[in-house]
Design a protein that fits this description.
The protein is mainly α. Among the domains are: about 1-150, Receptor-associated Protein (Up-down Bundle); about 265-375, Up-down Bundle (Receptor-associated Protein), CATH 1.20.81.30. It contains 18 helices and three strands. The chain has helices spanning about 25-35, 70-85, 90-100, 105-120, 125-130, 130-135, 135-150, 150-210, 215-230, 230-250, 250-260, 265-290, 295-305, 310-320, 325-330, 340-350, 355-375, 375-410, and strands spanning about 1-10, 15-25, 40-50. The protein has a three-stranded antiparallel β-sheet. A hairpin with a 5-residue loop joins strand 1 and strand 2. The protein is elongated. It starts with a strand and ends with a helix.
């Protein structure tokens, strides 16, 4: 969901001026968010576009990257902050100690600024709100709710565990995809070499013999000669395609279309659904435990999942909840969540234990996703073998069929 980053200047209850950044879809929503922090907004001005929710872009993001803190670094910082608060060490002093030991430069600057702001009298959540683009909206809003409910140490512990699990799952998925991606990459390079250098040589040899070549062979050889003569055009098309996909992913409509296409791939769909449902339930449980209401918890959980299809369904759920519907009544409009997840959430609402049921669902899909990612190479390997065999067979037939004809003529 794309929103605007609003820079604001406000005064607190003591009359001191405060500056910061908040993310909202409209200026009115930004005003309400600043007012919810106990501040009186003086000025609000848009500071650019940014993606709201997990994995999105912040105000400092560019077309090529993001200024978000890495999940691993954020998890370590969250754990240390929770230990400091649990040990009743003054937060500003503890943050200065964390900053001195922090190696990641971006996070070190943020922690130093947090220490200065908290020492000057700001609340933890208010100080973090100025770095919402780097920490993420889910992180900041969860801290704000936990601080308001007086449950900050426990929430920080759960938040740290959730971030660590997210990092581990991401590492497993990347590791599982490394082998098939390497195979596809090497196969692609080999195919380019054959079509660009080997096939054109055979084409010239066949032309000298005045052989009547099959249509398929002529097409393949023409393609190889075009790659050799117009390689820059093919390279430009590849680069343009990458930029086009990137541009589409940054736009709401394009991202939804890409997400829908990814969910049509059989095995990949199971992995995406497992990862998304696990993260949704983890954030939903954490948000409710930290003191957020049902609507705000649903909103944060949907955004944190990073899947446009789920965000669309969650927005429909929120609209019905605002109209007076209960969670068990509005789950039917969410096609993304699995039947198992819906049954567990309904049971949680009936027993007043939604956070615990969400934790059970998240653990279930964590295990299922881990199993799927470990076996992804086993699933993809036969497909790769068939693909390689087809490519080799096509090139071999295109080249050797005319050569057999030559052998017959010479014989």
């Amino acid at each position: 969901m794309i929103a605007l980053n609003f820079q604001y200047e406000a005064v607190d209850r003591a009359g001191a001026r405060r500056k910061g950044v908040t993310i909202a879809a409209t200026k009115a929503e930004a005003f309400r968010k600043v007012a919810a922090l106990g501040l009186t907004p003086l000025t609000l001005r848009p500071a650019g576009r940014g993606a709201v929710g997990g994995g999105g872009k912040g105000p400092g993001a560019s077309f090529f990257g993001s200024d978000r803190i890495k999940t691993k670094d954020l998890a370590n910082f969250t754990y240390q902050l929770g230990v400091l608060i649990g040990a009743r060490i003054p937060i500003s002093e503890g943050l200065l100690g964390i900053a001195q030991q922090e190696r990641e430069g971006k996070l070190k600057v943020i922690v130093m600024d947090l220490a200065k702001r908290i020492e000057a009298g700001e609340q933890v959540s208010h100080a973090m709100n100025s770095h919402r683009h780097a920490l993420g909206e889910v992180y900041v809003e969860t801290i704000r709710a936990a601080e308001k409910s007086g449950n900050l140490p426990k929430v920080l512990e759960h938040l740290s565990d959730m971030l660590e699990k997210s990092q581990e799952t991401t590492r497993q998925v990347r590791g599982a995809l490394m082998y098939p991606l390497c195979v596809v990459g090497v196969l692609g390079l080999a195919l380019v070499f054959l079509l660009s250098f080997v096939v054109p040589k055979f084409a010239r040899m066949f032309a000298q013999r005045n052989l009547e070549l099959p249509l398929f062979t002529r097409l393949l050889m023409g393609f190889g000669e075009s790659m050799q003569g117009y390689w820059w055009a093919y390279l430009g098309a590849v680069v343009l395609g990458v930029f086009a996909l990137r541009y589409a992913w940054l736009r709401p409509d394009g991202r939804t279309a890409i997400d829908r296409a990814l969910h049509r791939i059989p095995y990949l769909k199971d992995i995406l659904v497992g990862l998304t449902v696990s993260r949704f339930c983890s954030v939903f449980s954490l948000s409710l435990s930290s003191g957020l209401g049902l609507i705000d918890s649903l909103d944060l959980a949907g955004k944190s999942a990073g899947r446009p299809l789920l965000v669309r369904d969650v927005n429909r759920m929120i609209a019905q909840v605002r109209s007076g519907g209960r969670l068990m009544d509005v789950l039917s409009v969410c096609a993304y969540l699995t039947p198992f997840t819906k049954r567990m959430l309904i049971a949680g609402e009936q027993s007043a234990e939604i956070p615990r049921m969400c934790t059970v669902v998240a653990r279930h899909y964590d295990r299922e996703t881990t199993h799927l990612t470990k076996n992804i190479a086993t699933v993809i390997e036969p497909v790769l073998i068939v693909g390689i065999a087809v490519v080799v067979l096509v090139i071999a037939l295109a080249i050797f069929l005319p050569m057999w004809d030559m052998a017959k003529i010479v014989g």
